[in-house]
């Protein structure tokens, strides 16, 4: 679903991504951990066209992000094509980013009507079903300011799902929440990871043989919630100083890290 190859990104003299390679299979949950400033947000943002890599390529579901290929040459995409691609990549921010002047249900119907050309009626039916899924069926007509942070973030997740994303990106989705509200948001994300009971491939184990197969939403989650990573991730990626230092199943990266930098980081957050 996602293939990142040799991606580099600098802001002026600051090298933020120093050659990142990452592959994420369809239906997999990848959790990215690492110290502040290590480039986690920048990596997510390059997947969603919010930043453009200086070099390297990013492919999402077989489509080159930000480029099109003609023969062996790459050409940058036009703005309209970028918007079209971005429609299929959901992004959930730390601080929710809801439209404050729209009700909850309107927050969910706006983009499907505008970008997917759904009828208002169809978009509303989908929105109500998604709100039920995140436990907020009774909040459809509320405004964001009338909701708790945890409820607002669940609305933001439902809004991302309303665009039927093939890839969902979360950038520290619980970092702005009071501690007692973190669990309800993580539970919703956990649920997305196991959205479908019967894997089409008939596989019974995940890519590392430790988890039941599932055809849930493909997700990349940046978080400091190590317990969540242990429970939900198929793959944990540890980033430090613009590079992926170590990646693998949670039992290895969190349970028996090979790299000293991973051990040092975990000893600070655990
Ligand atoms: P993380 O999410 O791991 O904390 P970021 O990807 O946000 O790290 O940032 C990595 C580094 O890049 C930081 O030093 C940050 O200050 C810098 N940075 C991020 N975005 C910009 C930008 N738009 N302009 C300049 N520097 C930036
Ligand atoms: Mg960040």
UniProtKB/TrEMBL annotation:
<keyword id="KW-0472">Membrane</keyword>
<dbReference type="GO" id="GO:0015424">
    <property type="term" value="F:ABC-type amino acid transporter activity"/>
</dbReference>
<dbReference type="GO" id="GO:0005524">
    <property type="term" value="F:ATP binding"/>
</dbReference>
<keyword id="KW-0067">ATP-binding</keyword>
<dbReference type="Pfam" id="PF00005">
    <property type="entry name" value="ABC_tran"/>
</dbReference>
<dbReference type="InterPro" id="IPR003593">
    <property type="entry name" value="AAA+_ATPase"/>
</dbReference>
<dbReference type="InterPro" id="IPR003439">
    <property type="entry name" value="ABC_transporter-like_ATP-bd"/>
</dbReference>
<dbReference type="InterPro" id="IPR027417">
    <property type="entry name" value="P-loop_NTPase"/>
</dbReference>
<keyword id="KW-0547">Nucleotide-binding</keyword>
<dbReference type="GO" id="GO:0016887">
    <property type="term" value="F:ATP hydrolysis activity"/>
</dbReference>
<keyword id="KW-1003">Cell membrane</keyword>
<feature type="domain" description="ABC transporter">
    <location>
        <begin position="2"/>
        <end position="266"/>
    </location>
</feature>
<keyword id="KW-0029">Amino-acid transport</keyword>
<keyword id="KW-0813">Transport</keyword>
<comment type="similarity">
    <text>Belongs to the ABC transporter superfamily.</text>
</comment>
<dbReference type="InterPro" id="IPR050086">
    <property type="entry name" value="MetN_ABC_transporter-like"/>
</dbReference>
<dbReference type="InterPro" id="IPR017871">
    <property type="entry name" value="ABC_transporter-like_CS"/>
</dbReference>
<dbReference type="InterPro" id="IPR030679">
    <property type="entry name" value="ABC_ATPase_HisP-typ"/>
</dbReference>
<protein>
    <submittedName>
        <fullName>Amino acid ABC transporter ATP-binding protein</fullName>
    </submittedName>
</protein>
């Amino acid at each position: 679903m996602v293939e990142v190859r040799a991606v580099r990104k600098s802001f002026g003299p600051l090298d933020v991504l120093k050659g990142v390679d990452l592959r994420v299979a369809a239906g997999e949950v990848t959790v990215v951990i690492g110290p502040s400033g290590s480039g986690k947000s920048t990596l997510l943002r390059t997947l969603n066209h919010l930043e453009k890599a200086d070099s390297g390529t990013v492919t999402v579901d077989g489509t080159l992000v930000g480029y099109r290929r003609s023969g062996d040459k790459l050409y940058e995409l036009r703005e309209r094509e970028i918007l079209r691609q971005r429609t299929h990549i959901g992004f959930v921010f730390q601080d929710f980013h809801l439209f404050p002047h729209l009700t909850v249900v309107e927050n969910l119907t706006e983009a499907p009507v505008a970008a997917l050309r759904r009828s208002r009626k169809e978009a509303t039916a989908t929105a109500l079903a998604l709100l039920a899924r995140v436990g907020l069926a009774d909040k459809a007509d509320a405004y964001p300011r009338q909701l708790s942070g945890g409820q607002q973030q669940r609305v933001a997740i439902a809004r991302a799902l309303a665009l039927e994303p093939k890839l969902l990106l979360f950038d520290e989705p619980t970092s702005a929440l009071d501690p007692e509200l973190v669990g309800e948001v993580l539970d919703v994300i956990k649920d997305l990871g196991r959205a479908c009971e019967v894997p089409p491939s008939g596989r019974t184990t995940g890519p590392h043989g430790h988890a039941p197969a599932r055809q849930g939403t493909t997700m990349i989650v940046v978080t400091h919630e190590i317990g969540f990573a242990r429970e939900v991730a198929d793959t944990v990626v540890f980033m430090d100083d613009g590079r992926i230092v170590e990646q693998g199943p949670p039992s290895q990266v969190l349970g028996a890290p090979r790299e000293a930098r991973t051990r040092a980081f975990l000893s600070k957050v655990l």
